[in-house]
Amino acid sequence: MYRHCFFDDYSEGAHPRVLAQLAADTLAQEPGYGNDAPSQRAAALLRIATGSPGAAVHFVSGGTQANLIALASVLRPHESVVAAASAHIHVHETGAVEATGHKINLVAGADGKLAPDAVRAVVAQHADEHMVRPRVVFVSQPTELGTLYSAAELEALSEACRELGLYLYLDGARLASALASPACDLALPRLAALVDMFYLGGTKNGALFGEAIVITNPALQPDFRYHLKQRGALLAKGRALGTQFVALLEDDLYLELARHANAMAARLATGLRAAGVRFLGDPVTNLVFPILSDATIARLREAYGFHVWGRVDDAHSAIRLVASWATTPAAVDAFLDDFAASTAAG
Amino acid sequence: MYRHCFFDDYSEGAHPRVLAQLAADTLAQEPGYGNDAPSQRAAALLRIATGSPGAAVHFVSGGTQANLIALASVLRPHESVVAAASAHIHVHETGAVEATGHKINLVAGADGKLAPDAVRAVVAQHADEHMVRPRVVFVSQPTELGTLYSAAELEALSEACRELGLYLYLDGARLASALASPACDLALPRLAALVDMFYLGGTKNGALFGEAIVITNPALQPDFRYHLKQRGALLAKGRALGTQFVALLEDDLYLELARHANAMAARLATGLRAAGVRFLGDPVTNLVFPILSDATIARLREAYGFHVWGRVDDAHSAIRLVASWATTPAAVDAFLDDFAASTAAG
Amino acid sequence: MYRHCFFDDYSEGAHPRVLAQLAADTLAQEPGYGNDAPSQRAAALLRIATGSPGAAVHFVSGGTQANLIALASVLRPHESVVAAASAHIHVHETGAVEATGHKINLVAGADGKLAPDAVRAVVAQHADEHMVRPRVVFVSQPTELGTLYSAAELEALSEACRELGLYLYLDGARLASALASPACDLALPRLAALVDMFYLGGTKNGALFGEAIVITNPALQPDFRYHLKQRGALLAKGRALGTQFVALLEDDLYLELARHANAMAARLATGLRAAGVRFLGDPVTNLVFPILSDATIARLREAYGFHVWGRVDDAHSAIRLVASWATTPAAVDAFLDDFAASTAAG
Amino acid sequence: MYRHCFFDDYSEGAHPRVLAQLAADTLAQEPGYGNDAPSQRAAALLRIATGSPGAAVHFVSGGTQANLIALASVLRPHESVVAAASAHIHVHETGAVEATGHKINLVAGADGKLAPDAVRAVVAQHADEHMVRPRVVFVSQPTELGTLYSAAELEALSEACRELGLYLYLDGARLASALASPACDLALPRLAALVDMFYLGGTKNGALFGEAIVITNPALQPDFRYHLKQRGALLAKGRALGTQFVALLEDDLYLELARHANAMAARLATGLRAAGVRFLGDPVTNLVFPILSDATIARLREAYGFHVWGRVDDAHSAIRLVASWATTPAAVDAFLDDFAASTAAG
Predict the structure, then answer these.
(1) Is A91's Cβ below 8 Å from some Cβ in C?
(2) Which pLDDT score, from 0 to 100, does residue A294 have?
């Protein structure tokens, strides 16, 4: 019913090359539970891409699953996670972390990022056994608000974590989009070296489903498959995950798709900016948060799908437009045309 | 390196018609998290196939995930699951049920089935607040040992559960194989009416991955999506599950694939029986448990993949041969030929 | 080493009448696990005191235990607790609620109280299955900051909870002190009628240990002893709890002790106010939060035990003074004298 | 209504010397949460009694609490407990261990003991990530069936645990009774050296309530107070526990009380044996399991409280008689007289 949706980057299915790879090897017999050749190959490709020859790599089916298993695997019962108040694990995962028994200690912050001093303050406040013990810091790149950690920022945070005896975990649901952004000076090998564990998302970047968990800290590698199995994440046909990541990683398809999504978002932003629109935060990845009048929003919603992100003033709200690997220039241009018509009409 | 593997029914990828369906609609934009059109269509097909117009249907990525979420969704903290000692949830799911906080009360039984009186005895033994309260009975069709509940047996068990105030849950990882078996007098609508919740497995019957949870008891339907989300099972691209089940359910492809797997297992069994081989249990689904001499097993293992199931006597063991939708008559006949050669050599 | 401690109301042991009651019946044989005559008698006395003839009453050994069991007993896995950011369960119970699998949704608030509109806002924000479902509201009387809910305030909150389908739970670790306060217009029977479950604290009011959980909502009464047992709270000698509450409840000893503690706190407050001291909040229970200069605090700490509560300005902090059933006028007067000397010296 | 109860060893309250000690120091001000002088003193006495100068000692209010906290504190999510099928944690603690997320792997055994080979077999069966990983072995002394581990037996089990990388935990709810038994060659310091953690029970041996957890393995000592607090076991007035253990440990009162209980049980056994009664197991502690005719049992139950333990044949059952620190020779002799009258009448 919508002419086009900018709701999210998982509105379409998988990229044709991913589907082709799944079809290509479907009759080959492979061992189950991630011990298949495609998963081994995808893991090898990821070790190269991350510059982490010693990393352990595991594939799971979704982001909430990746987060809850990764975090629960490193925590003892009395230990907690430190995260920004806007963090996905806090707001939008239905208490998945708490369901594994752990508290999340929140840090306020306007831009969705965690500052080293804020983490230090949380640790300082948790001084004895009447309070949980902070043990792992959760960040995402890009953040929930679409902002990016610079290399210097993540280095400072990583250093603070090491100094405080905390692990650093990074949720990379849209990491490819960050890596492909001209605004990002934090390359994958550097990022991998600064954190203890992270995941590179496939679902939001052309896979049918799937996220790749990369454990760079050797101390966190043992027994991880037990955690996967116990939480229902060890797929019998693990090849379904491995095969997709082979397709995404070979020839850097994952970066190509992310660059395309970013470019479509930039095309949206450029068009809107030219028409005088302001934005909530700089558009640097595949997410754009333009601030529009409520009247314009109402008219655009008749033909386009998107989320209203939050009210800005009495007459304006920010909306969220998301571009994907499958967004076409034509769809973007149609939106910009209709926007122009809407504002002219208003 | 093996000429052919009979390890399991998830050694190959997805059936070509499943892959074709995934490819066919990949560019269509769909709502996320299972609210997509293919998932709605697959649910409707399942309501028809199960004769349960009021059933709630949800799709998840694997069997352990289906089991842990289904069971935890119906239990209060002090309530337990009753299961056969051979049950998959007890032996081979890494304590997934216990990780959600619940004990499994075990019932011994030679054939992998639960008898109503055994369930009554467990309930009678748990008389007060110093013990857990049994609340849900776990069965599978076929059982872990390849046996089948008859309609009369499941009716008796269902009646005992209702009488005792217990829910009845059925793990149907290989349910299609049971339904397609000539030895099975328990049709899907009857089964659906006798249990409160069950799942129909896709992973072991031609899907890339995926299981369909069917909740026939209306009291257990509310809030199920919260449980899915909290345990990491609500895929952003839920369409990846729905689309596959559309392919499997349309024109009863799932039964066609199961019949093929059963036929290949029967071909194995017939050939071996003709050579004088005995079996651990009657081969009635896609699993065959022939008892072979250790020497024969050793020779066969050079060319074929299969699991040794258990020792029978000093010189013989049972092996497990599993046929799938992709097993060819040629592969079966090659195995039988090599078996004949092995025994001749012995 | 201190002349006297105002650290807390659990610095002394049990009141002599409590100990006498324990000694009086020590050789009588009683059934175990709370089925003893003293526990039955104490429960009956509590039903009278709360005007709740249908209430279920259970005795446990401490406040964190009471809170975690009460809350976990009413929640399904995806449901959460709503509490003030200053709540004890959030800050000072080492993630006990999260360890049972549940998130706490926090509400900011200067005075430690929850306003009905704040609760309504939390419920409104949690609209779908991507977020937890708020299900029980946690308050304490007095609050963590020593403030009191008026009858009108708790009525409004209770009405909001009923309207929103939420349970209302009240932590009464220091409830006797509130009930005995002249500033409190909320009597025990009214309070009991407004909440679904609460506990009346013994540990901080003359018991050796023990809290009495009162469940007024019949829907929450079944199976509570299972929860007690599973969490390790069902004492074999449950009589040890029941006997103490008989001593506290007969002749309203619990109110007499609380009135004494309040009076000693008021004596402290009056003396300090006369010397020009200001307070963090009005002293209405057995807790007093005077604001003193850092120099004065340093001198007083040489002879008296108390907690520094928080910094007020560059040169002043608030301290917390707590009076108990055992605090003597002489101890209070000595403190006031030494305070006078300290400030004179300064 | 009963002339006397032999139901259990927690039917009476606390020993007068325990109560006197509680009364003696009730007005002294002490730090909270186990940092009080009596708890420190009791811990020191226990380090001496166990010959373990480096042991960490903590006091909790009950046995289920001790077990669930001790076990959960050493396990990672995928790890399990190995226990006898008769173990209290499996049968009679309402799934307390499972509620912390962990499976119990059961070992059959007629005498309630765990044999090293049985533990080795469990470990051997749990070979990969599809099953839990056994990590701690649970035993009790005496066992649930009243039998005792000899020094040689516990040494062999301890050696097997070290060899297999398992921790060994001992539930000592009635440990004093074992230590005081002439049939026991396993002294406290030897026992303490063979296990990694254990508790010495107070509740069943003259305390009002309380168990002393002793952690001899230094690797298991850090952060234990966090676990205590999170599970609701850190009493504000920890002195209530420490003071009682000071009374029990000074002058070895705990052994004196256990010897008395054992002697009363032996007096029962001797009297019954003289009358030709047989027993279920040798009476070696304060528990006696005589096998009586159903008619005799029915007559004795009119005047005496005891549990019927299990049916032996069509006309006979075993009953369980428990003697305590408070059982008098007169009560025993009255029972024996009435038994003689009962059988004469029959």
Answers:
(1) yes
(2) 95
The distance of A238 to chain D (nearest Cα, Å) reads 14
Whether residues B19 and A22 touch (CB distance < 8 A) is answered with yes
Rounded Cα–Cα distance for residues B60 and A175 (Å) = 25
Nearest to A13 among B62, B99, B239 (CB): B239
Residue C153, exposed/middle/buried by CB under 10 A (0-12, 13-18, 19+)? middle
How much is the pLDDT for B344?
79
Considering the domain architecture, whether residues B161 and B135 belong to the same structural domain is answered as yes
Q: A252, A285, A310 — which closes off a domain? A: A252
Yes or no, beta carbons of A72 and D72 under 8 Å apart: no
Regarding whether C285 and C247 lie in a shared domain, the answer is no
pLDDT at C108 (0 to 100): 87
Q: DSSP states of B109-173 as a string?
A: -TTSPPPHHHHHHHHHH--STTS-EEEEEEEESS-TTS----HHHHHHHHHHHHHHT-EEEEEET
Q: Which structure tokens are listed for D179?
A: 């230590």
* Rounded mean pLDDT, C59-64: 98
Whether C184 and C53 share a structural domain: yes
Two structure tokens written together for D106:
């059961």
Q: Does D78 touch chain B (CB under 8 A)?
A: yes
Q: Quote ipTM for the complex.
A: 0.97
Does A240 share its domain with A275? no
Task: Give the domain CATH number at A303.
Answer: 3.90.1150.10
> Is pLDDT above 90 for C1?
no
Yes or no: say if A293 and A228 are a contact pair by the CB < 8 Å rule. no
Provide φ and ψ at B62, rounded to 5°: -160, 170
Q: With contacts defined as CB-CB under 8 Å, which chain A residues touch B10?
A: 32, 236-237
Report CB contact under 8 Å: B78, C223: yes
Distance separating alpha carbons of residues C95 and D161, to the nearest angstrom: 32
Three-class SS state of A222? coil
What angle (nearest 5°) sits at the alpha carbon of residue B25, between those of residues A10 and B40?
Answer: 75
The boundaries of the domain holding residue C106 are: 16-253
Same domain, D27 and D155: yes
Within 13 Å of residue A294, how many CA atoms lie on the same side as its CB? 7
Radius of gyration (C-alpha) of chain B in whole angstroms? 21
Q: Are residues A139 and A233 in the same domain?
A: yes
pLDDT tens, D224-280? Answer: 999 999 999 999 999 999 999 999 999 999 999 999 999 999 999 999 999 999 999
Best mutation target among D228, D230, D234 (most A Cβ atoms within 10 Å) is D230
Residue D304 CA to residue D331 CA, distance in Å, equals 10
- Helix%, strand%, coil% for chain A, nearest 5: 45, 20, 40
Would you call B236 and A65 a contact, using CB atoms and an 8 Å cutoff?
no
Question: Where residue D93 sits, what CATH number does that domain have?
Answer: 3.40.640.10
D5 forms beta bridges with D305
Q: Is D85 on the interface with B (CB under 8 A)?
A: no
Question: What parts of chain A have a pLDDT lower than 50?
Answer: none
For residues A246 and A297, membership in a common domain is answered with no
Residue C201: which H helix or E strand, with range? strand C197-201
Number of Cβ pairs closer than 8 Å across A and B? 181
Whether chain A has a CB inside 8 Å of the CB on D226: the answer is: yes
CB A34 within 8 A of CB A242: yes
Q: Which residue of C has its CA nearest to A85?
A: C106
Same domain, residue pair D269 and D201: no
Give alpha helix (H) positions in chain A: 16-24, 37-49, 63-74, 88-91, 96-99, 116-125, 151-164, 175-179, 188-194, 224-230, 239-249, 253-274, 294-300, 329-345
The number of distinct structural domains making up chain A is 2
Query: Which of D236, D253, D270 lies at the terminal end of a domain, its last residue?
Result: D253
**Sheet hosting strand C133-140, strand order edge to edge:** C56-60, C211-215, C197-201, C167-172, C133-140, C79-84, C104-107
Once rounded to an integer, what is the mean pLDDT over residues C201-215?
98
**Cα–Cα distance between C194 and C32 in angstroms, integer?**
32
